[in-house]
């Protein structure tokens, strides 16, 4: 039995002020849905952070609606848990009606104790969908005010689930959490004071597989858990990560796992080189450029944008290397001296008296 594991779509996300919806649409329409049509998985597990914010933009909602409609037409069961970025209450709209059509939105802790049994050709997989939760909500649900931290709460929740295990079936956990020892990316949000938000991977040992969401890099978490990671790169530090989704195959004894890498038309990359070289190699990727020119480059972003329409940022080795040296040389110098040094670096010439006069005039106007 084949099952797809994906998470953290973050529909509606922005990257340096640029909407990624067209790239997200590409992933769904050109990578995920064709794989579903081709391989006919029994189920698709979407492990939280479907949207990038609790009140999702209409375009993101429409994209999810289109995707779910196609998955329903293909006869694939879809299990969705809410993540910390999702508005769980809004996602719960019509979840009772959708459940009858094979789409399971799991947005409350009660849903965790309503596992979904998937059967195909004599094989059974029982999925326990655990949405993102905070300890106060778990304490209230479990009726135990002594529980402290997410690890203790999750351990207690799993204890409640174990009596529901169907004999002879594979048991799969869906969760949106931070596993101890896992690697984080710049695009993740949330703080964890003293590790209280982390859970040990050993908690998942009761399951045959734990399908996790929340962390954006695809990775293992202990022996039985995996993060599928985001389908696209959502920050510059993810430039080297291989994005996609996970394909699971249950043979009745164990799961085999394959990472399906996707290559969107616009990658996220860090590049370095001379301004001239950048102009000679145009690129539509989302790019951060580090200029290695030995002299200052004026209006670098404006000059490069025709060649890099999705330019995210420009950095300069010259600025980095000379900033400290300039500061040391000019320490204690007067305003005219600082202006003159700046003028020489930018233009290669000393300022004329008229330049100094204009500088003093402007400085006098802006000084409180």
How are the secondary structure elements laid out?
Elements (H helix, E strand, L loop, with lengths): L1 E5 L7 E2 L2 E2 L1 H19 L3 E5 L10 H16 L3 E5 L6 H4 L3 H5 L3 E4 L2 H4 L3 E5 L2 E8 L4 H8 L6 H13 L8 E7 L1 E2 L18 E2 L9 E5 L5 E3 L3 E3 L16 E7 L4 E7 L6 E6 L1 H6 L5 E6 L8 H5 L6 E6 H13 L5 H13 L5 H14 L2
Parallel strand pairs: 1-4, 4-5, 5-6, 8-9, 9-12, 10-11, 12-14, 17-18, 18-19
Antiparallel strand pairs: 1-15, 2-3, 7-8, 13-14, 15-16
Helix pairs in contact: 1-2, 6-7
Distance between the termini: 72 Å
Shape, principal axes of CA atoms: elongated
What class do helices, strands and sheet pairing give? alpha/beta
Any idea of the CATH class of the largest domain? Alpha Beta
Short note summarizing the structure:
By secondary structure, the protein is α/β, with parallel strands linked by helices. The chain is built from 12 helices and 19 strands.
């Amino acid at each position: 039995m084949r099952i797809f594991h994906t998470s953290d779509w973050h529909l509606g996300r922005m990257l340096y002020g640029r909407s990624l919806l067209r790239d997200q649409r590409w992933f769904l329409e050109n990578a995920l849905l064709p794989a579903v049509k081709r391989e006919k998985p029994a189920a698709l597990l979407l492990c939280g952070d479907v949207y990038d914010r609790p009140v999702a933009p209409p375009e993101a909602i429409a994209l999810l609606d289109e995707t779910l409609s196609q998955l329903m037409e293909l006869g694939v069961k879809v299990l969705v848990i809410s993540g910390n970025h999702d508005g769980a209450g809004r996602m719960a709209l019509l979840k009772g009606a959708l459940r009858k059509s094979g789409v399971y939105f799991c947005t409350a802790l009660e849903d965790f104790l309503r596992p979904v049994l998937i059967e195909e050709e004599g094989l059974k997989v029982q999925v326990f969908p655990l949405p993102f939760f905070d300890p106060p909500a778990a304490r209230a649900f479990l009726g135990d005010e002594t529980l402290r931290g997410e690890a203790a709460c999750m351990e207690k929740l799993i204890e409640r689930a174990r009596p529901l295990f169907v004999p002879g079936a594979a048991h799969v956990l869906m969760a949106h959490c931070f596993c101890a020892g896992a690697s984080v990316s710049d695009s993740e949000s949330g703080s964890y004071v003293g590790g209280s938000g982390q859970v040990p991977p050993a908690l998942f040992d009761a399951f045959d597989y734990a399908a996790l969401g929340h962390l954006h890099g695809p990775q293992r978490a202990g022996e039985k858990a995996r993060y599928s990671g985001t389908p696209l790169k959502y920050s510059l530090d993810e430039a080297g990560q291989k994005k996609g989704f996970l394909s699971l195959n249950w043979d009745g004894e164990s799961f085999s796992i394959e990472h399906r890498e996707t290559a969107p038309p616009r990658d996220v990359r860090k590049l370095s080189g001379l301004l001239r070289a950048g102009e000679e190699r145009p690129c539509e990727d989302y790019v951060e450029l580090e200029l290695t020119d030995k002299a200052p480059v004026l209006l670098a972003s404006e000059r490069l944008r025709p060649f890099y329409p999705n330019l995210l940022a420009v950095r300069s080795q010259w600025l980095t290397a000379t900033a400290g040296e300039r500061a040391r040389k000019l320490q204690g110098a007067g305003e005219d001296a600082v202006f003159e040094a700046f003028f020489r670096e930018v233009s290669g010439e000393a300022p004329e008296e008229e330049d100094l006069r204009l500088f003093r005039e402007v400085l006098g106007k802006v000084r409180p």
